[in-house]
Amino acid sequence: MATLDQTEPTPVPLAMQRRRNLPAGAALGWLGKGWRDLWNRPAPSLAYGIAVFGVSLAIIWGLFALGLDYILLPALAGFMVVGPLVAIGLYQKSRDIEAGQPVGLGRMVFVQTASGAQVWFTGAILCLLMLVWMRAAVIIYALFFGLRPFPGLGGVFSMLLTTPEGWGMLVVGTVVGGLFAAFSFAISTFAVPMLLDEKTDAFTAMGTSISLVWNNLPVMLAWGAIVLGLFLVCVATGLLGLIIVFPLLGHATWHSYRAIR
Protein backbone atom coordinates (compact mmCIF):
# COMPACT_ATOMS: atom_id res chain seq x y z
CA MET A 1 0.00 0.00 0.00
CA ALA A 2 1.38 3.39 -0.94
CA THR A 3 2.08 5.63 1.97
CA LEU A 4 0.35 8.97 1.99
CA ASP A 5 2.53 12.03 1.87
CA GLN A 6 1.85 13.65 5.20
CA THR A 7 4.35 16.45 4.78
CA GLU A 8 2.80 19.62 6.16
CA PRO A 9 3.16 22.84 4.19
CA THR A 10 5.78 25.23 5.49
CA PRO A 11 4.05 27.87 7.60
CA VAL A 12 4.22 31.38 6.20
CA PRO A 13 5.95 33.78 8.61
CA LEU A 14 3.66 36.37 10.14
CA ALA A 15 5.72 39.19 8.64
CA MET A 16 5.13 37.77 5.14
CA GLN A 17 1.42 37.40 5.84
CA ARG A 18 1.22 41.09 6.64
CA ARG A 19 3.30 42.32 3.72
CA ARG A 20 1.10 43.71 0.94
CA ASN A 21 3.89 44.90 -1.40
CA LEU A 22 1.89 48.01 -2.23
CA PRO A 23 3.74 50.79 -4.06
CA ALA A 24 4.17 54.12 -2.31
CA GLY A 25 1.76 55.63 -4.83
CA ALA A 26 -1.08 53.56 -3.35
CA ALA A 27 -1.30 56.19 -0.61
CA LEU A 28 -2.60 58.66 -3.18
CA GLY A 29 -5.31 56.15 -4.05
CA TRP A 30 -6.42 56.09 -0.41
CA LEU A 31 -6.59 59.86 -0.47
CA GLY A 32 -8.73 59.74 -3.61
CA LYS A 33 -11.15 57.28 -2.00
CA GLY A 34 -11.28 59.49 1.08
CA TRP A 35 -12.17 62.45 -1.13
CA ARG A 36 -14.97 60.40 -2.70
CA ASP A 37 -16.38 59.46 0.71
CA LEU A 38 -16.13 63.07 1.90
CA TRP A 39 -18.45 64.25 -0.87
CA ASN A 40 -20.81 61.30 -0.60
CA ARG A 41 -23.46 63.02 1.52
CA PRO A 42 -20.92 65.66 2.62
CA ALA A 43 -22.95 67.41 5.33
CA PRO A 44 -22.07 64.95 8.18
CA SER A 45 -18.37 64.96 7.26
CA LEU A 46 -18.21 68.75 7.03
CA ALA A 47 -20.09 69.08 10.32
CA TYR A 48 -17.51 66.75 11.84
CA GLY A 49 -14.71 68.92 10.48
CA ILE A 50 -16.34 72.11 11.76
CA ALA A 51 -16.68 70.54 15.22
CA VAL A 52 -12.99 69.55 15.27
CA PHE A 53 -12.05 73.07 14.14
CA GLY A 54 -14.21 74.64 16.86
CA VAL A 55 -12.85 72.43 19.63
CA SER A 56 -9.29 73.12 18.47
CA LEU A 57 -9.87 76.88 18.63
CA ALA A 58 -11.42 76.53 22.10
CA ILE A 59 -8.38 74.60 23.34
CA ILE A 60 -5.98 77.18 21.91
CA TRP A 61 -7.99 80.00 23.50
CA GLY A 62 -7.89 78.12 26.80
CA LEU A 63 -4.10 77.75 26.63
CA PHE A 64 -3.68 81.50 26.15
CA ALA A 65 -6.24 82.30 28.85
CA LEU A 66 -4.41 80.09 31.35
CA GLY A 67 -0.98 81.43 30.40
CA LEU A 68 0.04 78.10 28.89
CA ASP A 69 0.89 79.42 25.46
CA TYR A 70 4.39 77.93 25.79
CA ILE A 71 2.94 74.47 25.16
CA LEU A 72 0.98 75.53 22.08
CA LEU A 73 3.45 74.15 19.54
CA PRO A 74 3.81 70.78 21.34
CA ALA A 75 0.01 70.69 21.69
CA LEU A 76 -0.39 71.16 17.93
CA ALA A 77 2.04 68.30 17.35
CA GLY A 78 0.20 66.25 19.97
CA PHE A 79 -3.02 66.69 18.02
CA MET A 80 -1.63 64.27 15.45
CA VAL A 81 -1.23 61.68 18.23
CA VAL A 82 -4.91 61.67 19.23
CA GLY A 83 -6.24 62.43 15.74
CA PRO A 84 -6.90 58.76 14.83
CA LEU A 85 -9.19 58.41 17.83
CA VAL A 86 -11.06 61.64 17.13
CA ALA A 87 -11.65 60.48 13.54
CA ILE A 88 -13.49 57.30 14.54
CA GLY A 89 -16.85 58.70 13.39
CA LEU A 90 -15.40 59.30 9.94
CA TYR A 91 -14.27 55.68 9.80
CA GLN A 92 -17.84 54.74 10.62
CA LYS A 93 -19.19 56.75 7.69
CA SER A 94 -16.75 55.16 5.24
CA ARG A 95 -17.60 51.75 6.66
CA ASP A 96 -21.32 52.43 6.18
CA ILE A 97 -20.77 53.59 2.61
CA GLU A 98 -18.78 50.44 1.90
CA ALA A 99 -21.52 48.24 3.39
CA GLY A 100 -24.37 50.11 1.70
CA GLN A 101 -25.73 51.24 5.05
CA PRO A 102 -27.46 54.60 5.66
CA VAL A 103 -25.09 57.46 6.47
CA GLY A 104 -25.88 59.96 9.19
CA LEU A 105 -24.25 62.24 11.73
CA GLY A 106 -25.88 60.33 14.58
CA ARG A 107 -24.12 57.11 13.61
CA MET A 108 -20.85 59.02 13.32
CA VAL A 109 -21.13 60.59 16.78
CA PHE A 110 -22.56 57.60 18.66
CA VAL A 111 -20.30 54.94 17.22
CA GLN A 112 -20.89 51.31 18.16
CA THR A 113 -17.50 49.61 17.99
CA ALA A 114 -17.04 45.85 17.64
CA SER A 115 -14.52 45.94 20.50
CA GLY A 116 -16.64 47.95 22.91
CA ALA A 117 -14.72 49.99 25.49
CA GLN A 118 -11.34 48.79 24.22
CA VAL A 119 -11.25 51.72 21.80
CA TRP A 120 -11.53 54.17 24.69
CA PHE A 121 -8.73 52.38 26.51
CA THR A 122 -6.63 52.91 23.39
CA GLY A 123 -7.69 56.55 23.44
CA ALA A 124 -6.50 56.89 27.04
CA ILE A 125 -3.10 55.50 26.04
CA LEU A 126 -2.87 57.97 23.14
CA CYS A 127 -3.81 60.88 25.42
CA LEU A 128 -1.17 59.78 27.92
CA LEU A 129 1.38 59.62 25.12
CA MET A 130 0.45 63.16 24.08
CA LEU A 131 0.88 64.42 27.66
CA VAL A 132 4.29 62.72 27.89
CA TRP A 133 5.34 64.42 24.64
CA MET A 134 4.20 67.84 25.90
CA ARG A 135 6.14 67.33 29.16
CA ALA A 136 9.20 66.22 27.18
CA ALA A 137 8.96 69.41 25.09
CA VAL A 138 8.96 71.55 28.26
CA ILE A 139 12.00 69.65 29.59
CA ILE A 140 13.86 70.13 26.30
CA TYR A 141 13.18 73.88 26.49
CA ALA A 142 14.50 73.97 30.07
CA LEU A 143 17.64 72.06 29.09
CA PHE A 144 18.57 74.67 26.49
CA PHE A 145 17.18 77.90 27.96
CA GLY A 146 17.07 77.17 31.69
CA LEU A 147 14.74 79.47 33.58
CA ARG A 148 14.51 82.04 30.78
CA PRO A 149 10.82 83.03 30.48
CA PHE A 150 9.00 81.95 27.36
CA PRO A 151 9.10 84.98 25.01
CA GLY A 152 5.65 84.37 23.55
CA LEU A 153 4.79 83.30 20.04
CA GLY A 154 5.99 86.63 18.69
CA GLY A 155 9.52 86.10 19.95
CA VAL A 156 9.96 82.35 20.06
CA PHE A 157 10.84 81.94 16.38
CA SER A 158 13.57 84.60 16.44
CA MET A 159 14.92 83.04 19.65
CA LEU A 160 15.03 79.62 18.02
CA LEU A 161 16.54 80.76 14.73
CA THR A 162 19.09 83.33 15.90
CA THR A 163 20.75 81.67 18.90
CA PRO A 164 22.95 78.56 19.22
CA GLU A 165 20.66 77.31 21.99
CA GLY A 166 17.68 77.74 19.71
CA TRP A 167 19.25 75.70 16.92
CA GLY A 168 20.24 73.01 19.40
CA MET A 169 16.70 72.88 20.74
CA LEU A 170 15.31 72.65 17.21
CA VAL A 171 17.54 69.69 16.39
CA VAL A 172 16.89 67.79 19.62
CA GLY A 173 13.19 68.67 19.64
CA THR A 174 12.78 67.53 16.06
CA VAL A 175 14.48 64.19 16.75
CA VAL A 176 12.53 63.53 19.97
CA GLY A 177 9.27 64.75 18.46
CA GLY A 178 9.86 62.60 15.39
CA LEU A 179 10.30 59.52 17.56
CA PHE A 180 7.07 60.28 19.44
CA ALA A 181 5.24 60.91 16.17
CA ALA A 182 6.54 57.71 14.55
CA PHE A 183 5.59 55.59 17.55
CA SER A 184 2.12 57.11 17.91
CA PHE A 185 1.51 56.77 14.16
CA ALA A 186 2.55 53.12 14.23
CA ILE A 187 0.37 52.12 17.18
CA SER A 188 -2.74 54.06 16.22
CA THR A 189 -3.12 54.35 12.46
CA PHE A 190 -4.66 50.87 12.12
CA ALA A 191 -5.52 50.14 15.76
CA VAL A 192 -8.56 52.43 16.00
CA PRO A 193 -10.17 51.30 12.70
CA MET A 194 -9.44 47.71 13.72
CA LEU A 195 -11.16 48.15 17.09
CA LEU A 196 -14.14 49.63 15.28
CA ASP A 197 -14.34 46.78 12.79
CA GLU A 198 -13.17 43.73 14.72
CA LYS A 199 -13.68 42.28 18.18
CA THR A 200 -10.25 42.39 19.79
CA ASP A 201 -8.39 44.06 22.65
CA ALA A 202 -6.44 47.31 22.65
CA PHE A 203 -2.97 45.80 22.97
CA THR A 204 -3.56 43.28 20.18
CA ALA A 205 -4.83 46.07 17.93
CA MET A 206 -1.86 48.31 18.69
CA GLY A 207 0.62 45.47 18.22
CA THR A 208 -1.02 44.50 14.92
CA SER A 209 -0.90 48.12 13.80
CA ILE A 210 2.84 48.31 14.48
CA SER A 211 3.39 45.07 12.56
CA LEU A 212 1.34 46.22 9.58
CA VAL A 213 3.13 49.55 9.41
CA TRP A 214 6.58 47.96 9.70
CA ASN A 215 5.91 45.30 7.06
CA ASN A 216 4.47 47.85 4.60
CA LEU A 217 6.99 50.60 5.21
CA PRO A 218 7.28 52.25 1.76
CA VAL A 219 3.55 52.95 1.37
CA MET A 220 3.18 53.85 5.06
CA LEU A 221 6.04 56.35 4.87
CA ALA A 222 4.31 57.92 1.88
CA TRP A 223 1.02 57.99 3.79
CA GLY A 224 2.67 59.53 6.85
CA ALA A 225 4.22 62.24 4.65
CA ILE A 226 0.80 63.02 3.15
CA VAL A 227 -0.78 63.27 6.61
CA LEU A 228 2.01 65.55 7.85
CA GLY A 229 1.87 67.74 4.77
CA LEU A 230 -1.89 68.23 4.98
CA PHE A 231 -1.66 68.94 8.71
CA LEU A 232 0.92 71.67 8.01
CA VAL A 233 -1.54 73.13 5.49
CA CYS A 234 -4.12 73.27 8.31
CA VAL A 235 -1.65 75.07 10.60
CA ALA A 236 -0.77 77.53 7.82
CA THR A 237 -4.46 78.39 7.40
CA GLY A 238 -4.97 79.04 11.11
CA LEU A 239 -6.53 75.54 11.45
CA LEU A 240 -9.38 76.55 9.12
CA GLY A 241 -8.21 73.81 6.77
CA LEU A 242 -9.26 71.23 9.36
CA ILE A 243 -12.84 71.59 8.15
CA ILE A 244 -11.90 69.82 4.90
CA VAL A 245 -8.61 68.12 5.67
CA PHE A 246 -9.63 66.30 8.84
CA PRO A 247 -12.63 64.52 7.27
CA LEU A 248 -10.59 63.80 4.16
CA LEU A 249 -7.81 62.13 6.17
CA GLY A 250 -10.31 60.31 8.36
CA HIS A 251 -12.07 58.72 5.40
CA ALA A 252 -8.77 57.99 3.66
CA THR A 253 -7.40 56.30 6.80
CA TRP A 254 -10.30 53.85 6.70
CA HIS A 255 -9.33 52.89 3.16
CA SER A 256 -5.68 52.52 4.19
CA TYR A 257 -6.85 50.10 6.88
CA ARG A 258 -8.94 48.12 4.41
CA ALA A 259 -6.05 47.93 1.94
CA ILE A 260 -3.41 46.86 4.47
CA ARG A 261 -5.42 44.74 6.91
How would you portray this structure in words?
The chain is mainly α and 261 residues long. Helix content is 75%, strand content 0%. The protein has helices spanning 14-17, 26-38, 42-65, 72-86, 88-99, 105-109, 118-145, 153-162, 164-188, 191-197, 202-215, 217-236, 242-260. α4 runs parallel beside α9 (164-188). The chain starts with 13 loop residues before the first helix and ends with a helix. The mean pLDDT is 87.
In short:
The protein has 13 helices and no strands. By secondary structure, it is mainly α. The radius of gyration is 21 Å and the shape is globular.
Total beta-strand segments: 0
| Biggest beta-sheet profile | none
Share of β-strand residues: under 5%
Count of helical segments?
13
Overall pLDDT: 87
Structural class: mainly alpha
Give the N-to-C terminal Cα separation: 46 Å
- Amount of helix: over 70%
Are there runs of 5+ residues with pLDDT below 50, and where? none
Could you state the order of secondary-structure elements as H and E? HHHHHHHHHHHHH
Which radius of gyration do the C-alpha atoms yield? 21 Å
List the helices and strands and how they pair.
Layout: H1 14-17, H2 26-38, H3 42-65, H4 72-86, H5 88-99, H6 105-109, H7 118-145, H8 153-162, H9 164-188, H10 191-197, H11 202-215, H12 217-236, H13 242-260
